[in-house]
Design goal:
Layout lengths: L1 E3 L7 H59 L4 H66 L2 H8 L3 H16 L4 E8 L6 E7 L1 H10 L5 H4 L2 E6 L5 E4 L14 H4 L4 E7 L2 E9 L11 E7 L2
Antiparallel strand pairs: 1-2, 2-3, 4-5, 4-8, 6-7, 7-8
Helix pairs in contact: 1-2, 2-5, 3-4
């Protein structure tokens, strides 16, 4: 077995990609923060309307009391007071409906966003693994690798090592490239070694969530058995209770509010869509406590 070690270089293109990705993440987090702020603003405005409406109801009650004391002379005033009370009741009903609609819209936005983030994460995983598989297929046909497998003499080994070293220095995702001679036959195996946590761990930990969302959200990549392959929680369990997810995993991107460990939790998932000829078959799985 011949290894090819080298210092991992940082290409300008990769740095620019990370910068663009960070900018997009910041924009998404800003939009999420704005959405939460808007919902809080609606709640505050409706609270103010409710307070004004309560004062109107009290005035209506007092007006009806005074109208009753005035007897026949207060009859017309009593009609106005009754109408004020009716309008106040309508405002109260409308306020309750608006508050319910606002929170339902907020819930739908939250659920859709968790699903979209899950889909984005698993799509990034599939795209990266597809690229890695393309890399190894491409480099396995490199003349230096082929010549070394056909004739593993010192000159061919040294040439292949230099060639793979050049490749390794150009990429940030690999820790080593390994060329294996399979019992002297004309075919060999080229293997690529990369840090899974640096790939998948970075993807889940850089999911664009606000600080408040991160405080109650867990972001994972899981397989069909619920085994956690990547996790935003350092001390998270290595296995999810798949029984509460089973119905969701059979659907396209979907979400539901479930009770997990006694707490109301929004869970969202997205299955691997595959990229080109590669499909991991895994899932992006996010869970967020609702309060």
């Amino acid at each position: 077995m011949m290894g090819c070690n080298g210092e991992i270089g940082t290409a300008n293109g990769a740095a620019e990609t990370r910068d663009r990705g960070a900018a997009v993440e910041q924009q998404i987090a800003a939009i999420a923060s704005l959405s939460e702020s808007l919902l809080r603003g609606v709640d505050t405005a409706l609270d103010e309307v409710s307070n004004v409406n309560l004062s109107t109801q009290l005035l209506s009650v007092n007006a009806r009391i005074e109208a009753a004391r005035a007897g026949a002379a207060g009859g017309s005033f009593a009609v106005v007071a009754t109408e004020m009370n009716r309008l106040s009741s309508e405002v109260k009903s409308l306020t309750a409906r608006l508050r319910g609609d606002a929170h339902e819209t907020g819930r739908q936005v939250r659920d859709a966003r968790l699903c979209e983030l899950a889909l984005t994460n698993i799509d990034l995983i599939d795209r990266n693994l597809y690229e890695r598989s393309c890399d190894v297929r491409w480099w396995a046909t490199d003349a230096a690798a082929v010549d070394c497998v056909r004739d593993p003499s010192a000159p061919h080994r040294q040439h292949a090592q230099r060639r793979l070293g050049q490749i390794l220095d150009s990429y940030t995702v690999y820790s080593d490239l390994v060329l294996v001679d399979v019992h002297g036959r004309l075919l060999g195996v080229l293997g690529i070694l990369f840090d899974w946590d640096a790939l998948a761990g970075t993807i889940v930990r850089r999911t664009p969530l606000t600080a408040d969302e991160w405080a109650r959200t867990r972001v994972c990549i899981i397989d069909n058995t619920g085994r956690v392959l990547a996790d935003s929680m350092q001390d998270g369990t290595s296995q999810l209770d798949i029984s509460v997810w089973k119905a969701l995993l059979k659907q396209p991107p979907s979400s539901a509010v479930l009770r997990i460990e006694g707490r109301e939790t929004c869970v969202a998932h997205a299955a691997s869509p595959g990229y080109e000829t590669y499909r991991s078959g895994w899932h992006g799985a996010n869970s967020a406590r609702t309060h």
